[in-house]
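Write out the 3D structure for:
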Amino acid sequence: MLKIGVLGAGHLGKIHLRLLNQSEKYELVGFYDPLASNAEKVAQEFGYRVFKSIDALIAEVDVVDIVTPTLSHYECAVQAIKAGRHIFLEKPISNTVTEAEHIIALAKEYGVKGQVGHVERFNPAFMAVKNKINNPMFIETHRLAEFNPRGTDVPVVLDLMIHDIDAILSVVQSKVKEIHATGTAVISDSPDIANARIEFENGCVANITSSRISMKNMRKARFFQKDAYISVDYLDKICEVVKMKNAPEVPGDFDLILQNAEGVKKQIYYDNPEVASNNAILDELETFADAINNNTTPIVTLEDGTEALRIAHQIIDCFNK
């Protein structure tokens, strides 16, 4: 069983602590939080062991789970890697692409594994249809959230949109060709609403919208490809797959048939997979344990996290043009 420690005991850090404490693949050794009053409160309330320094925690674990504010990801990761520890980094991987690339280089140099917490990859609705998404040519996503002061220290692109950027990059097997984007600051100092159009070399186009000042929460994606329309509701964890096939010569009474101008008839049918129940955060953490134990590639690599961050910063750069 891998020994793991958590850096950061904020909202998400406490969730990680609870799940790791329940996990059969990790032994939770304890946590470190720079805010002493919060650290003592969490330790007293939940009984987790609190460390007085990052070094002290790193010395006693095999894996470091970094759930600190983005600005400190790089420093924490470097410290852990140089001590020979595997790292799990909450998204985004770091504040800058340069930092992320150095993390990758260090991990290779010290022979440790790393995974980035792009949790929507483990959303059961997305997992149920991912193998059905084949060469999509148009993608549309909406990620809207009610206002929450937590996370407003960074643009909505790094706070919310990066989830969809990563998911899209995982299914579009082509390089990004061009990006157009707009963003508007409404209540924060950085953009709260953003829209990006990403064009890929293979012709695929992704239209991504994110807002953190919406009246309601929404996390939806739609994938259009030659033979299918696939929708994913990350929030309600449901999905839908609508496909086409050649129409039978004698359609049934309830068959849905479409006919184009050339007289070609197609039958529309549903191919909805079963959505398994899971805890996405626990799954991402435990699959990382499997990658370490089996010496396999993590599902969301440091390179994946870096590429999502690279595209996110290119989108942010468009705001200033």
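The chain has two domains: 2-112, 121-276+310-319.
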